[in-house]
Amino acid sequence: MTAVHPAAPSGALLTGRAKHLALAGLFLSMFVSMLAMNVVGTSMPIIIADIGGTQAAFTWVVTATMLASAISTPIWGKLADLTSKKALLQIALIVFTLGSALAGTAQDPTWLIVFRVLQGLGAGGLGVLGQIVLAEVVSPLERGKYMGIMGAVMAVATVGGPLLGGLITDTIGWRWNFYVAAPIAIVAIIMLQRTLHLQTFKQKIKIDYLGAALISAGFTSLLIWVTLGGSNFDWWSWQTIAMVGGGLIVLALAVFVETRAEEPLIPLTLFKNRTFTLAVVASIAVGLAMFGTAVFLGQYMQLARGRTVIEASLLTLPMMAGVLISSTIVGQIITRTGKWKRYMVIGAVALLAGLLLMGQLRYDTSYWYVGVSMFIMGAGVGMTMQNLVLVVQNTVPPTQMGVASSSVTFFRTIGGTAGMSAMGAMLAAQVSSYIQDGLAKLAPEQLAGAESLASGVLPKVAELPEPIRLVVESAYGHSIGNIFFAASPIALLALVAIIFLPNVPLSTKSNAEKIADLRAAEEANAEGVLTGSVTVLTDTTGPVVLPTRHSQAAPSTTIKTDSSER
Questions:
Q1: Of 49, 263, 367, 480, which shows the fewest CB atoms inside 10 Å?
Q2: Is the dihedral of CA 478, 479, 482, 484 positive or negative?
Q3: pLDDT digit string (tens) for 43-91?
Q4: Taking Cα atoms as reference points, which of 290, 387, 393, 542 lies closest to residue 80?
Q5: What is d(CA 143, CA 137) in angstroms, rounded to the nearest whole number?
Q6: Is residue 516, in this structure, part of any structural domain at all?
Q7: Per-residue DSSP letter, 302
Q8: 10 part of a folded domain
C-alpha cells in the first residue's frame, strides 16, 4: 500500500510585522516608479513644445518608454525565476532613477526619447518584480487585499504625479520633474535592503537573447508603422509592406526560436493554460485603456479645453479616483470571500462603458459628463488590471511564477503601446484634417497666425488668436473623442475573455510556501524510491517537474495537482 507523507515545513518565511515592513518597502519602490512616470504626464505638451517636438515626437516619447518597459519585462521575469528577486528589484530601481535623471538634461526630442528608453527598462523591472515579490510573500487568497493596496498606491502616484509635475513645471521648470524620483528611490533601496528577506533558489542563468532580440525587433517594426503611417507615408505603400511584412516575419522567427530554446523568454506552453491565454487577451485591452487615457486626457484638457498643466491634472482626478476606490474595495472583498470573477466581469463592463462615454467628448462637453465618464473607466481599470495578474499567478506552477507574471504584464504593455501609437497616429491625422476644414471656414482677416500650425509642432493654445484657437480646440476635442470611441471594440473583446475565464478557487499558500513544499516533496520522493513510499503534494497549481537532488532517485518526478481548471 502506498504511504502518504505530509510535505515538509516551508522554512523561514516572512510573517507578521516583518512581512508588513517588507511590503512597505515594496510598495514604496512601486510608488516612486509610478510617480516618476506620471509626473511628466500633463506637462508633456509643454515639454515637447519647449524642445521643438511634433505630435509624432510626443507619441514616441511615451511609446519608446513603454516599448522598452514591455520588451524588458519578460527578461526581468525570467531572471526572477533564476536568481535573487531582491537584488533584481534594487537594480531596476537604480536603472530607472538614472534614466529619469538623464531625461531631465535632454535638449531635443531625440535625447529625451533615448533617456526615456533607459527609464522604461527600469520601469519594466519594477512593474513586474513588485507583483512577483508580492506573490512570493502572500498567498493568492490574501493577495487580493494587497493587490488592492498596490492598485491604490499606483492610483495615488498617478494622481499625485501630474499634480506635482504641474506645480514644478509652473514654478521651477519642467526639467525638475525628472529629478523628483531620486531621493525617494534611495529610501526605497535602503528599505528593501533592510526588510526584504526572501528564500532564493539560484539556478544557472540562461536567457534566450536571440528570442528577446527578435521579439523586440518585430514589435518595434510594427509600432513604427502604426506611429508613422498616414502621416509620413500612406497606409497602402511599400513602407507599409516592408514594416508589417518584416515585423510579422521576425515575430514568426521569434516563435520558432522560443519553441526550441532551453530557457525561452516566453514559454509557449503557457498558452496551453486557458486562464493565462484569456488573461493576456483581456490585459491588452486594459493596457490600451490605462495608458491611452492617461496620455490623451492630458492633451484633451490642455489643447481642447485650454487648461493649464495644474488644472488639467485636477480635472483628470475622477479617473484615478475610480481606480483607487474600486481596486481597494474589490481587493478587500476578494480576500474576504475568495470570489473574484463577478467583480472582474463588472470591471470589464465598466471599462467598455467608460470608453463609449468618452467617445462622445468634444471641446465644449460638460465637465460633469467628462468626470463621470472618467470615473467609470477608472473603476473598470481598477477592478481588472491587478486581478488579471492574480488569477494567472493562481493557476501556474510556482516555478514559473516570474515568467508568467511578466508575460501578462508584457502583453498588457505591448497592447497599451500599440494602441497608444495607433491612437496617436489617428489623432494626428484627424487633427490635421479638422484644422484644415476649420481654417477654410474663416475669413481671410481671421487667418493671421495660422501659419504656425503648418509645422505640425504642438500649438501653445493660449497664444493663438481667438478664431484660430477655437478651430484648434474643436479639432482636438473632436479627434480625441473619436479615438476613444475607436478603442471600445477592444474593451468588448476583454469582456468576452473575462467571461470565459475558468473560475478557479484562490490558493491559500504563498509562492514561497509552495516552492518549499515542492522541495520537501522532492526529497521525500527521492527517499520513496528506496522505501516504496510516495509523497502526494496538493494545493499547487499545475503539473510541476522537479529536478532530482539525489543520484539514487529517478531522473525526475512529476507531481500532479488537484487544481485543474474547471
A1: 367
A2: negative
A3: 787 888 888 877 677 777 877 887 788 788 888 888 887 778 888 888 9
A4: 393
A5: 9
A6: no
A7: I
A8: no
The three cell numbers of residue 206 are 540562461
Number of domains in the chain: 1
In order of 187, 191, 307, 561, the CA distances from 26 in angstroms are 11, 8, 36, 31
* Residue 4: DSSP 8-state: -
Nearest to 492 by CA among 392, 368, 359, 362: 359
Among 78, 87, 65, 84, smallest CA distance to 211 is for 78
Alpha-carbon separation of residue 546 from 260, 348, 355, 374, 537 (angstroms): 21, 38, 46, 48, 12
DSSP per-residue string spanning 10-71: --S---HHHHHHHHHHHHHHHHHHHHHHHTTTTTHHHHHHHTT-BHHHHHHHHHHHHHHHHH
Residue 42 backbone dihedrals phi, psi, to 5 degrees: -80, -15
**C-alpha closest to that of 452 among 440, 435, 442, 464:** 464
Residue 462 lies in a domain: no
Q: Are 109 and 57 in contact (CB under 8 A)?
A: yes
Q: What angle do CA 397, 402, 408 make, to 5 degrees?
A: 95
Residue 367 sits in a domain whose CATH number is: 1.20.1250.20
pLDDT in tens, 399-425: 777 788 888 888 887 787 777 778 887
Ramachandran assignment for 238, one of left (phi > 0), alpha (psi -120 to 50 degrees), beta (any other): alpha
Residue from 118, 119, 144 nearest 131 by CA: 144
Residues 6+ apart with CB under 8 A from 479: 426, 427, 430, 431, 434
Query: In which domain, by residue range, is 63 found?
Result: 16-207+263-423+494-499
Residue pointed to by grid coordinates 499634480: 163
Cell numbers that stand for 331 in this block: 481587493
Query: CA separation (Å) from 418 to 219, 355, 385?
Result: 9, 17, 18
C-alpha cell read off for 225:
508603422
Q: How confident is the model at residue 13 (pLDDT cuts 50, 70, 90)?
A: low
Give the model confidence (pLDDT) of 127-142 as tens digits.
888 888 887 777 777 7
Cell numbers for 360, please give them. Answer: 462622445
Does residue 251 lie within any of the structural domains? no
H/E element holding 164? helix 140-171
The grid coordinates of residue 268 equal 509557449
Q: How far apart are CA 85 and CA 539, in angstroms?
A: 24
What is the residue type of 232?
N
DSSP for 361-428, please give it.
Answer: --TT--HHHHHHHHHHHHHHHHHHHHHHHHHHHHHS-GGGHHHHHHHHHHHHHHHHHHHHHHHHHHHH
CA angle, residues 317, 223, 231, in degrees to nearest 5? 90
